[in-house]
Specification:
alpha/beta; two-stranded parallel ribbon; single chain; Rossmann fold; 6-stranded parallel beta sheet; about 45% helix; 10 helices
Amino acid sequence: MNARILITGSFGLVGSALKSALQARGIEVIELDIQAKGSDYGDVRDIDHVRTAVNRCDGVVHLAAVSRVLWGERDPELCRSTNVGGLRNIIESIYSLKKSPWLIFASSREVYGQPATLPVSEDAPLRPMNVYGHCKVRGEQLIIDAHRRGLRVSTVRLSNVYGNTDDHADRVIPAFSRGALMGETLRVDGAENTFDFTHIDDTTRGLVTLVQHMIRGGEALPPIHFLTGHPTTLQQLAEMAIDIADTGSEILYTPPRSYDVARFYGDPSRANSLLGWSPQATLRDGLTQLINDFRDELDTADAQVVSL
């Protein structure tokens, strides 16, 4: 497929995986990330950076964001200016071009807040309960407005993506995986809090499928889940990590955070119906692979120390 795809947030967990997957399929990738250097550097809050990048592409996958609920609570203004203002810059830059690139916007299961019924479908009410969630809802509203203005846009809602050792160390799956491997005590903030953990390979495969749909000229789709549909409590996750690592770590139970959703798992059937996508990685398999990857890194680091 001959296409130039702009990935904002290309250095993040999802962005870096998507970049590799698209390039492996012969698709040219343009990057925009505040962690990049040279021509790939760019801040989505800066309209000039955005216009320059958008002008070079046929389609945009917009992943750049303040990507953590905790970070949004700590700095609400940064979250709003990046997650809402950055998306607005993308849309306005697209709209200014004669040949308007299509746009895929990465939203989140946080838009639902605490859902009344489970599993959650894409048509469930949007009732966010934290700054990050509110910003994602506002972003989805911008996407709806852009569609009404004639742009070809689609929204995907992601859920607790994991699977890479380069992920933020304090996110729950990397923290539990590394901690269990090291024999440390795992802190569980809300033992019964339940989430839909989705492996990065499944998330990437879903995004690639949607990108290919857009490249082929496919119509804009309604919001789509890329998630497993399987609920896992934090206690179950901690116990699974300890069992896989086989180190005898203990668990420290603490109260849940006030701004966290307590229970969520979604319905992935729309993605299957519209795109033929369904999740393939089980949580246990994905967690086993991640713990083995952490083990390999630790073994390599130990070997380097010995060689010195």
